[in-house]
Design brief:
The mean pLDDT is about 95. About 40% of the residues lie in helices and about 15% in strands. Helix 3 packs across helix 5, helix 7 packs parallel to helix 9 and helix 9 crosses helix 11. It has a domain of about 220 residues: NAD(P)-binding Rossmann-like Domain (Rossmann fold, 3-Layer(aba) Sandwich). The chain has a seven-stranded parallel beta sheet with strand order 3-2-1-4-5-6-11, sandwiched between helices. The chain has eleven helices and 14 strands. Bound molecules: uridine-5'-diphosphate-4-deoxy-4-fluoro-alpha-D-galactose. Uridine-5'-diphosphate-4-deoxy-4-fluoro-alpha-D-galactose binds next to helix 7 and strand 8.
Length: about 350
């Protein structure tokens, strides 16, 4: 799909985005705005920020509040829903599984019921590479067995199943699920980026350590069966992931459905390699310490992303770990200067 084709398909379409104030959601909302979509973000702001929503309307609401959700969907009359809102931390999901089944599975059910009541039949769903667990073959393709090793992955797998069952039962309902690998980086124009109160993701932790916001970066596990003993992940730039969403929602609007796509580049980097790139990009030799394994972490997750490239014509523009870390670093520095100026004004 060319950029012009995408614009022709998406222009004027009404997209309801749950979790649009969050990290990935806000980048997709911005990209939808740039193609001329009408967007309504529905977000409870538990981890997202109102100021991260740079396009369209905003409704502060919770997927657990069915009446509120129904009213928002009825009022907006969307052509399609993109469902980001979720809890996303592997480690936390091991300690607090019910939060994950509530937010990621039960709330998805609420959303599907509300969509059904309002006659909205298209959903693009944020799934995860965590549904694969420890895959037998790397890179892993979409036909691999789903065997999550943490409640986060299991909660998303259950929602994928819900979607598949509903699509089989109801010909008016179509969905696409995108299985994200490790999303990182920030908007190349540095308008938005990741902004969590307690970030746990590797690249963000490394950069905040470089800025002195954490005393050291811990490497969780150096005895994995990988070349350097640390976990390997496929890091994908958030702007490329946003482009994948545009292609996928356009596909749904054109009649596609019941599809699942991996979103990654097809090559992995170890934790140690990421740390090295973070040190090069920042020019800061921040403290790093070995620590025990973190519960729920698979050793290696790398995507076979051939399917999305051929089916939707997705072509990544930022396939470079240095570029991912560089945009994230620009964003982290912007967050610091923003905090400084708020502090000075206050
Ligand atoms: N890590 C560290 N130190 C840290 C943070 C992370 O060593 O301070 C390690 C982790 O143990 C893991 C790797 O860096 O081996 C990546 O960890 P992240 O927390 O950055 O990301 P995850 O792989 O746990 O999870 C992410 C998303 C999930 C998604 C998954 C798919 O949060 O939503 O990638 O690969 F499912």
């Amino acid at each position: 799909m060319t950029e012009q084709n995408l614009k022709d398909i998406l222009w004027g379409k009404r997209i309801f985005v749950t979790g649009g104030a969050g990290y990935i959601g806000s980048h997709v909302v911005l990209a939808l705005g740039e193609t001329g979509c009408e967007v309504m973000t529905f977000d409870n702001l538990s981890t997202g920020h109102r100021h991260a929503v740079l396009h369209g309307d905003f409704c502060r609401g919770d997927l657990a509040e069915r009446e509120q959700l129904l009213a928002a969907i009825k009022g907006f009359r969307p052509d399609a829903v993109i469902h980001f809102a979720a809890a996303i931390e592997v480690g936390e999901s091991v300690a607090n599984p019910l939060k994950y089944y509530r937010n990621n599975t039960a709330n998805a059910l609420n959303l599907l019921e509300a969509m059904g009541e309002c006659g909205v039949g298209l959903m693009l769903f944020s799934s995860t590479a965590a549904v694969y667990g420890n895959p037998e073959r790397i890179p892993v393709d979409e036909s691999a067995q789903l065997a999550p090793i943490n409640p986060y992955g299991a909660s998303k797998m259950m929602t994928e199943r819900l979607l598949a069952d509903l699509a089989s039962a109801d010909s008016a309902f179509r969905y696409t699920a995108l299985r994200y690998f490790n999303v990182a980086g920030a908007d190349p124009m540095v308008r938005i980026g990741q902004d969590y109160a307690n970030p746990t993701h590797l690249i963000t932790r490394a950069l905040k350590t470089a800025l002195g916001q954490f005393p050291k970066l811990e490497i969780f596990g150096s005895d994995y069966p990988t070349a350097d003993g640390t976990c390997i992940r496929d890091y994908i730039h958030v702007a490329d992931l946003a482009a994948a969403h545009l292609a996928a929602v356009a596909g749904l609007l054109l009649g596609r459905g019941a599809e699942v796509f991996n979103c990654g580049y097809g090559h992995g980097f170890s934790v140690r390699e990421v740390v090295e790139v973070a040190k090069q990009v920042t020019g800061i030799d921040f403290p790093v310490e070995m620590a025990p394994r973190r519960a729920g972490d698979p050793a290696e997750l790398v995507a076979d992303s051939q399917r999305i490239r051929s089916a939707l014509g997705w072509q990544p523009q930022y396939d470079s770990l240095t570029e991912i870390v560089r945009t994230a670093w620009e964003w982290e520095k912007k967050l610091v200067s923003r905090a400084d100026s708020v502090h000075e004004q206050g």
